[in-house]
Design brief:
Order of helices and strands: HEHHHHHEHEEEHEHEEH
CATH superfamily of the largest domain: TPP-binding domain
Low-confidence stretches: none
Strand content: 5-15%
Shape: elongated
Number of helices: 10
CATH architecture of the largest domain: 3-Layer(aba) Sandwich
Oligomer: single chain
Mean pLDDT: 95
CATH class of the largest domain: Alpha Beta
CATH topology of the largest domain: Rossmann fold
Bound molecules: adenosine-5-diphosphoribose
Strand order of the largest sheet: 3-2-1-6-7-8
Structural class: alpha/beta
């Protein structure tokens, strides 16, 4: 059987499973935004940033040692993301949610492309790169700060919290930090009552998100992986659709609409 025939059959099978499901949950990672041109965290470590490793740029310790350096890295990543638009993969997930309103997307991505494609109530495990908050969350978690309202000179460092005068940081989860508990609890709760889980564009290497297919699998969910490459999740996937999400996901929506 050719790869195309295998994919065609897989798409039909995925469509049938989704149509019969009561609760669909989707976990996405960097791969879903790849076709929008968003570099992964590691891809962004090039040019001037190639000399650093993630522990120098994406940990609370690194921020305390050199807040200006970390802030500048995040400003650089924000600039890289500015031109990005949702791709057909994001659009297809939003289209699926319109057909199955209880579908929820859990994402590890810090971009806002799911929301811009029309997905609602997205569970964001790793925060939002567009937002900032007080490093100490001095007014309670999260103490969000709109830096566009602050007078500060980027040449001199990071903006300072207007409440406590200490640093403002990007509202993303860094290595070694715990995930926001409300999002994590919602995700686990959903996964325990999910019939079908779509796992899209994640390497399945960074926990606790990487554990989520196992949580759903143990609760009896049918796991569908969409990824051009083999991952540790492939081991427990009931159905593997090998291909880019921007091609595979729209085909699933088409198959649902055609049936
Ligand atoms: N469509 C679907 N999947 C794709 C595509 C595509 N077009 N292109 C690449 N992929 C797959 C890769 O094969 C890989 O398995 O997407 C996955 C991306 O893996 P990672 O870069 O490790 O991304 P992710 O799993 O989201 O990483 C988790 O690690 O870097 C930290 O905090 C960051 O949220 C991130 C976390």
């Amino acid at each position: 059987m050719s790869d195309e025939d295998r994919l065609k059959m897989g798409v039909q099978q995925a469509a049938a499973r989704l149509q019969a499901a009561r609760q669909i949950t989707v976990l996405t990672g960097a791969g879903v935004s790849k076709e929008s041109g968003i570099p992964t965290f590691r891809d962004a470590l090039d040019g001037l940033w190639a000399q650093y490793d993630p522990t120098q740029l994406a940990t609370p310790q690194a921020f305390l040692i050199n807040p200006k350096l970390v802030w500048e890295f995040y400003e650089y990543r924000r600039r890289l993301m500015t031109p990005a638009q949702p791709n057909p993969g994001h659009m297809a997930l939003a289209a699926l949610q319109r057909r199955y309103p209880s579908l929820r997307v859990i994402t590890q991505n810090v971009d806002d492309l799911h929301e811009r494609a029309g997905s609602s109530d997205v569970i964001r495990l790793h925060g939002s790169i567009a937002l900032n908050r007080c490093f100490y969350d001095c007014q309670g978690y999260p103490t969000r700060i709109d830096v566009s309202l602050l007078a500060w000179d980027p040449a001199n460092g990071t903006p300072l919290c207007p409440h406590c005068g200490r640093w403002v940081r990007p509202d993303v989860v860094w290595f070694g930090e715990v995930l926001p508990s409300e999002e994590l609890d919602r995700a686990v709760n959903l996964l325990q009552r999910t019939d079908v889980m779509l796992v899209v564009g994640t390497s399945g290497l960074v926990t606790p998100a990487a554990d989520m297919p196992w949580i759903a699998g143990r609760s009896g969910a049918f796991i569908i992986e969409v990824n051009p490459d083999l991952t540790p999740i492939s081991e427990i996937a009931d159905l593997i659709l090998r291909g880019p999400s921007g091609e595979v996901l729209p085909r699933i929506v088409e198959a649902i609409d055609a049936s």
